[in-house]
Design a protein that fits this description.
411 residues, alpha/beta, Rossmann fold, 2 domains, seven-stranded mixed beta sheet, 12 strands, 26% helix, globular, membrane, golgi apparatus
Length: 411
């Protein structure tokens, strides 16, 4: 039998075929390569607000109140209100916040009193337990005690899953998930999340997210160390972004990630006035706000850049009297006061962002304008953000339960 030797393979032909196959797979989305750095859309700074001066020498400052006085003389609240009049409260194309209150909300109530028994939780604070006098004459008992609520109208679940079935005459099942993924349990009658499109919205802006803190706010800002950052969940994308930006700015990092202050729990050694209780062992959250207040800026990077997912990382910075440098929800401006944060994703590069931060840090008037919303009472959508926070969740959940009829609601 004649054996025919195989023909030699044309390497050029094979190379072309492989390249063509790779080309098809890549553009079909089969292959996805991780981005070297998070993309930063082009920066569009509104010219109506006071920008750092480029015509005069820098004016480093440490006294926050003196910067306010300069801003009062050069700008003032009247001009600031004029600037913000033309700014849309909802700047994105989505509905970011639910409505709460008003006469229209009082229609459809079936119960005048509602009791909610909290069954499964991890972080829901105990001092949320209370008997609330809610709008529209509704009273609401929110409790973790099955003695005080022995026949509740609703059961509230935060970590555990609600029962599979519910019969008429049994409590309604409320389920809350404030994580970015927003996964319903599939067993709830009322779903609570951070997003406005769900049954009941709960933002992270409430004061109950940070109980037991030292709320001392420093009037003196560091002039040489500009940025505070603290993160102990070292996600690769967040770490990479923080490392690039903080490498361009003088900073203190107090958490496990990129720590540069000599170890954990070092804030009290820097700022002993932040100690909450000299007789108690300090916890990192005791002095969080106080420590932040000594810096002009606080870097706040969310775990994920998801629509409407604006967490306590941003609100802690606002409450401390610092200016947040924020990376996160694309519609973040719907949740915060006008001209109160620096949205990092609106810059085309971290280098441009760092240059802007340095310029603001050395311009007392431009820096003070980031605090004007608080001093002039220009809240924008922030009032709504606070109105639908965890602080008001008991009343708003009780309203939803009342409109469904509580135990009498059909399955």
């Amino acid at each position: 039998m004649l054996v025919v030797p195989p023909k030699p393979i044309n390497t050029i032909t094979i190379t072309i075929m492989l390249a063509f196959t790779f080309f098809l797979l890549f553009f079909s989305g089969f292959f996805k390569f991780p981005s070297v750095s998070p993309s930063l859309p082009p920066f569009h700074q509104s010219s109506s607000f006071t920008l750092p001066s480029t015509n005069t020498s820098s004016q480093p400052f440490t006294d926050l109140l003196s910067s306010f006085r300069k801003w009062d003389l050069q700008v003032g609240c009247a001009k600031f209100r004029e600037k913000t009049n033309g700014v849309s409260l909802n700047q994105s194309k989505v509905v970011s916040l639910q409505q709460f209150g008003g006469d229209s909300e009082c229609k459809g109530f079936k119960l005048n009193h509602v009791s909610v028994l909290v069954k499964g939780w991890t972080w829901i604070p105990d001092n949320l337990d209370n008997l609330y006098s809610c709008p529209c004459g509704l009273s609401c008992l929110w409790t973790k005690s099955n003695v005080l609520a022995d026949k509740p109208d609703a059961l509230m679940f935060e970590t555990s899953t609600p029962p599979i079935q519910r019969r008429v005459g049994e409590p309604l099942r409320a389920y809350m998930d404030l994580e970015a993924g927003r996964r319903r349990s599939g067993r709830e009658d009322i779903y609570i999340s951070y997003h406005a499109e769900d049954d009941v919205q709960s933002t992270y802006a409430g004061s109950l997210f940070h109980n037991g803190r030292n709320y001392y706010v420093s009037n003196t800002k560091s002039s040489d160390i500009l940025v505070y950052w603290s993160s102990s969940r070292c996600l690769s994308q967040r770490n990479e972004l923080a490392k690039k930006l903080l490498g361009l700015l003088p900073h203190h990092s107090f958490g496990k990630c990129l720590n540069n202050v000599g170890g954990l729990d070092m804030a009290l050694s820097f700022f002993p006035e932040c100690e909450k209780d000299a007789n108690a062992k300090p916890k990192w959250w005791d002095h969080l706000h106080c420590a932040m207040s000594h810096y002009k800026f606080v870097l706040a990077i969310e775990n994920t850049f998801t629509e409407s997912y604006v967490t306590e990382k941003l609100y802690y910075a606002l409450d401390s009297g610092a200016v947040p440098i924020y990376f996160g929800a694309p519609n973040v401006m719907d949740f915060v006061p006008p001209h109160s944060i620096i949205d990092g994703r609106k810059f085309k590069s971290v280098e441009e962002l760092a240059s802007y931060v340095k310029a603001v840090a050395n311009d007392p008037v431009a820096y003070a304008e980031y605090h004007a919303w608080r001093r002039c009472g220009v809240m924008g959508n922030y009032a709504k953000t606070r109105a639908v926070s965890l602080d008001t969740l008991p009343c708003r959940l009780c309203e939803a339960v009342s409109k469904k009829g509580g135990r009498n609601a059909r399955s």
